[in-house]
């Protein structure tokens, strides 16, 4: 690792000299996600897809509002204790975020990285905390199946056919609080952010908006490969390398791309989109996607494995497809981006 005092590592990475702590996590998902294999790990499962609201967009804002409440309650903090909130979503002008968090009166950095937003939010939060610009930062994202379909694809009542490579946008939200100080709980195991590798926009010319895995896999490959190079490590440095939203199709492509560069990460690779649904949920096809996919999985299942020390080192790599309804309709390709966060459990 880093032998001098520079925090900049290689071409795209940062190694934190005083790694920030993740002191609390919170997750909420919809009914379908709660019926999947990770259902026992989520803090709350919402049976009503509208969450008591009148529109899908308001429902997604409510997901985010509840995720903030959950993580704040679990941390024991008051809103005045959190210096910044960093969050984003898939909807135009980040309306799920702005309407969802407004009541908390916390200074906001609204960000957009498509489905990679949780990795971006945690990265920026860790930089602010370790750099001394904030004591505590809340990172959060959300997505909702119906609001995403309405904006990016087809209204639900259109009842269109979906190909086998298509993914299912997760209805959910996940949040973590990043702190310069250790958590005050008596738990012996602490979760730290060791470093980050910031992704670049990668465009392989994929134009099929129903095949997000193929569009995002090259970006995941580029970021993971650069993490290996910047830190001079091999895949087995990690217990798991966890992508966000590639699904079964994209995960296979990523594995092949890494092998072409001489890295066999097949034992370490895992994808949140593959894990969040089971084989019986056939309408999910290739798996899950959406900002809430990686955020809710990280803030529940992944953190739990680290706390139990089933895993000690994880590379968390949410992946995003940088398309919009405009770019798709004028025939542009779908670029991807992925942001990697090195997360460790320490005693």
Structure, explained:
This protein has 347 residues and is an alpha/beta fold. It folds into two domains: 20-179, Stage V sporulation protein AD (Peroxisomal Thiolase, Chain A, domain 1, 3-Layer(aba) Sandwich); 190-346, Stage V sporulation protein AD (Peroxisomal Thiolase, Chain A, domain 1, 3-Layer(aba) Sandwich). The protein is built from ten helices and 17 strands. It has helices spanning 31-34, 56-75, 95-101, 117-130, 145-152, 212-231, 247-260, 272-275, 291-307, 325-329, and strands at 8-9, 13-15, 21-30, 44-46, 84-88, 108-110, 136-143, 168-169, 172-179, 190-197, 240-243, 269-271, 288-289, 313-317, 319-321, 336-338, 340-346. The strands form three sheets. Strands 1, 2, 3, 4, 5, 6, 7, 9, 10, 11, 12, 14 and 17 form a 13-stranded mixed β-sheet that branches. Strands 8-13 form a two-stranded parallel ribbon. It has a two-stranded antiparallel sheet with strand order 15-16. The two termini are 20 Å apart. The relative contact order is 0.19. The mean pLDDT is 90.
């Amino acid at each position: 690792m880093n032998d001098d005092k520079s925090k900049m590592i290689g071409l795209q990475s940062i190694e934190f000299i005083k790694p920030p702590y993740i002191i609390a996590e919170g997750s909420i998902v919809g009914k379908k996600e709660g019926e999947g294999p990770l259902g026992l790990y989520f803090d709350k499962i919402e049976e009503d897809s509208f969450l008591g609201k009148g529109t899908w967009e308001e429902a997604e804002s409510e997901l985010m509002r509840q995720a903030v409440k959950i993580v704040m309650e679990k941390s024991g903090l008051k809103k005045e204790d959190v210096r910044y909130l960093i969050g984003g979503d898939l909807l135009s002008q980040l309306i799920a975020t702005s309407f969802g968090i407004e009541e908390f009166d916390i200074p906001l950095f609204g960000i957009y990285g498509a489905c990679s937003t949780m990795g971006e939010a945690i990265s920026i939060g860790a930089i602010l905390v370790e750099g001394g610009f904030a004591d505590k930062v809340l990172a959060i994202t959300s997505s909702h199946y119906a609001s995403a379909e309405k904006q990016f694809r087809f209204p639900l009542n259109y009842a269109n056919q979906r190909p086998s490579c298509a993914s299912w946008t997760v209805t959910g939200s996940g949040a973590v609080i990043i702190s310069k100080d250790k958590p005050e709980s008596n738990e012996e195991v602490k979760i730290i952010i060791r470093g980050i590798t910031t992704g670049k926009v990668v465009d392989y010319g994929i134009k099929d908006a129903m095949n997000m895995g193929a569009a995002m896999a090259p970006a995941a490959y580029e970021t993971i490969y650069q993490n290996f190079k910047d830190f001079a490590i091999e895949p087995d440095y990690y217990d798991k390398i966890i992508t966000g939203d590639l699904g079964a199709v994209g995960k296979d492509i990523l594995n092949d791309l890494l092998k072409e560069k001489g890295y066999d990460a097949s034992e370490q690779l895992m994808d949140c989109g593959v894990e969040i649904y089971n084989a019986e949920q056939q309408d999910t096809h290739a798996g899950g996607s959406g900002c809430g996919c990686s955020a809710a999985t990280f803030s529940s299942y992944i953190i739990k494995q680290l706390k139990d020390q089933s895993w000690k080192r994880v590379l968390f790599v949410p992946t995003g497809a940088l398309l919009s309804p405009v770019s798709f309709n004028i025939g542009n390709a779908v670029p991807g981006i992925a942001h990697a966060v090195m997360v460790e459990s320490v005693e």
